[in-house]
Design a protein that fits this description.
423 residues, alpha/beta, 15 helices, 6 strands
Amino acid sequence: MPHADFVHLRVHTAYSLAEGAIKVKPLVKLCQNMGMPAVAMTDTGNLFGALEFSTSCAEAGIQPIIGVQLQVRREDEVAKGFGAGRDQGRTPEPDQLILLVQNEIGYGHLLKLVSKAFLETDGGETPQVSMTDVEAHSEGLLALSGGPLGAVGRLLGEGRADQAEAVLTRLCAAFPGRFYIELQRHGWPIEDAIEPDLIALADRYDIPLVATNEPFFADEAMYEAHDALLCIAAGAYVSQDDRRRLTPEHRFKSAEEMRSLFADLPEAVDNTLVVAKRCAFMVKKRKPLLPPFHIDGMTEVEALRKMSEDGLERRLEVHVYQPDMGEHERERLAKPYRDRMDYELGIIIQMGFPGYFLIVADFIQWSKSNGVPVGPGRGSGAGSVVAWALTITDLDPLRWGLLFERFLNPERVSMPDFDIDFC
């Protein structure tokens, strides 16, 4: 059966938070219905959906292309001088760069870039990386110029062709043979204005063109609902003029629509298939990897046992013992708790989860000691004496006859799952 002769390379799923409105499984269904052999997920600044997207596409016989719309810090003169008048002290919004994963090395580099954007951006700014960061992590990645909101397109739109050309040559050097100039036609005047210059640059530097559409919603019927979503995200009203708007063209178009739209540049549509063939990576499922929990001088097992024993004694003093109890009575009441805790620790250690308990206890104890309200713990985790001793939960499991086996059971090996509410 012949497949469609166009592939979407710029799809925003619902993982483009408060921005995209296409869920992963419906996206796969759209591709199936339109005969598209592949599709790229390029959510804004994150890879949250990479695993779900990869597995859903693979199950449906669609080739997943993992990507990100990365935000790159502006380095041009206007950005450095941004501060005249009312904009003083405000950093300009970063430029867009679309990065698509070709192989496992590229996926590792994209993970690093996305992490750097979130970890190394000042609070209040859009998570972003520098062009130097991009250059240092370009191997295994294929780049698209970003349309009118990419650095090249923006500079052309501002009439600064020389600076646009300088950025272009830098991107070509960072992605040798792996850089494409995007052409977009959503009906925005800026797209028409810069297109001749983009084509001229592509000719001058022998850079392939690629026709992209940027779907944020599935079809035109969703346009108004999606527009309301953008208003909610920005705290704006639908009637406002000075707010972000998209067009009904930002939908998931068919190959026929894209062929018609770019009838004058068929090679730009052909290149979407070329790009798809160059990207051969998908995220595979694997068992969870728990970070090690370091305590000076103790292993995780030793630390868990000591913290549990100490914590249980504090719980018994407050919740079980009475002030006038003798030692014999205290020992009688404590025995079932200690026996239950020894049993639970044996199971936890046998199943390899001491670090998990220590990690969860660490952030819950930190929250409680820093004034963050934390719930008492819901679900099967409330059946654990170890969790109660570590203050992960606040219910006495023995008093209420709760079963530890509902939470963790060697006969049904799965990750423990604490249901905790934080303010």
